[in-house]
Each structure stands twice: as structure tokens, then as C-alpha cells.
Amino acid sequence: MRQTPIRILPLLAERIWGHRDLGGWVSTSRVGTHGPIGEAWLTDINCEVETGGTLGALLARDQPARTGPPLLAKLLFTSAPLSVQVHPTDAAARASGMLASGKDEAWHILEAAPDAQVSIGFRQPVSATTLRAASADGTVLSLMRQHPVRTGETLFVPAGTVHAIGAGLVLLEVQDPIDVTYRLFDYGRPRPLQLDEALSVADLRGSRVVMGAATVAARQTLAVAPRFVLERIETEDGLTLRSDGSREHIVVPLADGATMDGRVLARGAAVFVPAMSNPVRFAGAALAVLHPGPGPSPCLAMG
Questions:
Q1: Which residues pair with 72 in a beta bridge?
Q2: pLDDT in tens, 195-243
Q3: Residue 174: is it exposed, middle or buried by C-beta count within 10 angstroms (0-12/13-18/19+)?
Q4: Which residues pair with 239 in a beta bridge?
Q5: Which of 7, 45, 132, 159 is the right S-S partner for 89, CB 3.0 to 4.6 Å?
Q6: CB atoms within 10 A of CB 218
Q7: Is the overall model pTM greater than 0.85, yes or no?
């Protein structure tokens, strides 16, 4: 049975490093009752959908045994640096017996202050002893590779890579749907650290970040991970998504003016397209398209 693509309402998460003004990426009526917003979760199972209920309930209706979300997409808004942190690897997930996988992620930069930067991996290999000591005395950032970032760039961060997102950024973060983070350093904020867990999964080699430059290509693969692919599509001449039953898609407009079958879509608001969806037509603005891969989606037809 063919299904209908559905718009998802973002789930807002307050963070001490977040913003009160989200610059039009999220409706002001939704933001007004909150403190500083650091994250807008676009595809969590607890997100509400336009037809009522949650995304999790919608997925379970057709797949009763399903408990997890599709691939996870978020918007991040940073007024201050995030913690120095790391996510579990596939090996750690298997050892835990509780996680479905490790957590790879990619960041597509939507807005960047002139001095915005991120820290990803180490300038040169380090020992666990050195990393522990630097995390304890606050010098860990001096070990890490700093990357100035610009709007339109994309960075792929493999699981196990120690990283820190800086201030002055709006970015689209896509990842495996595993909400596990181990903090090594947090600028003295009153939040717990997980130093032992972080050291058990941290890649101590030199940085392996993959950076993709901004382009004006009509279709561009931004990031490739073992379980997801992120593409960017310009839709001046339109885009038709014809699901083939093999993969779900998450579509996020990257600018104002996008439409889905003639209906206006807010920028930054996700659309979930089931694997057995009716064909759907997008136009009007650039889109981020997230799917399980492998490779570019064969379900997208330009023009």
C-alpha cells in the first residue's frame, strides 16, 4: 500500500550553549515558550507529525516491531562552544549489547560567523594518558585540529572521533539514530563528564575528518557513511522522488521558497518520505536529502 509523505514538527531542546533567536529556521511561535534552544530535532520518534500523533507512532502503525526512528537529523544553533566529546564506535556498540550501531555524523554548515570554527580529531597521535590529563586540566583543545568553517561546507565525523563544535554556527547535523555522547571537557559547566567511557572509544590517531567544499552543482553528495548518505539538490527545475520500496528519505529545505506538491515548506522543516510512498514533487529551493544509501539515491529524478 502506497503512503503519503508527511511533514514533521521539530522537537526543540534547550541547551546552555543555544540561542533564543533561531533566525527563521524554526517558527517563532514554537520558540517563544522556551529558554535558549540548542537543537531542533527534526526526525526523532517523539516529534509530532502534521496529521497528529508522533513519528514513532506513525512508523509503528505500519511496522509494529519497529522501535527506532529513521536516520536522525537535527538543526544546531550555537552561541557558545559545545563540549569536547566523542560518540561510540560500532565495536563499542557490539560490546555493549545495547546499541544498534556506533554513531557517525555529518555537519552541513547553514550559517557561520566570520570566526566560526570546529575542532575535530588530533593534530598528531596522542596517548590515552595524555588525553586524560589534557581533558582534566582543560588543555585538550590544544591537542586538536582546528577547522575554520564557511557556509555551504560539509564535514563528516566518523564514530570515535573526538570533536567540539564552536560558537556562531547554524548547522544541519545528520547521524545514525544513536543518542549517546561521552564528554571529555565542558568548560567547567555543571554537567557530568564520561571520561572513562570516552577514552574507551576515542580514536587516538591523527584527525580523519572529511571536509567537503561548498559547490553550486545541481546535485552533490555531501557525506557518505556506512549507514547513510546525505545529498544536496538544487530544485530550480524541480525534483520528483519516486520511492522504490527499498529506502526511506528525509528531505529538509535549506532555504525559503520550497514546495512539496505545491504546498509551501518552511526552511529547516523535515519531510519523511516512506519507502512505499506515492511519488512527490519538490521545487523552489535547495534541499538536503538523507537516506540509507548506498550511493546516491536512484529514487530522485531531476527536472
A1: 175
A2: 999 999 999 998 888 888 777 788 999 999 999 999 999 988 899 999 9
A3: buried
A4: 282, 302
A5: 159
A6: 15
A7: yes
Percent helix, strand, coil in the chain, to 5, is: 15, 35, 50
Integer distance in angstroms from the first to the last C-alpha of the chain?
27
Residue with cell 546499541: 99
What gap in Å lies between CA 94 and CA 101, rounded to an integer?
7
Cell of 13: 531542546
Which cell is 202 given? 576515542
Question: If residue 94 lies in a helix (H) or strand (E), which one and from where to where?
Answer: helix 90-96
E strands, 123-217, where? Answer: 144-148, 154-157, 163-165, 169-175, 182-185, 210-212
Q: Give buried/exposed letters for 247-283 (b at 16+ CB in 10 A, else e).
A: bbbbbbbbeeebbbeeeebebbbbbbbbbebeebebb
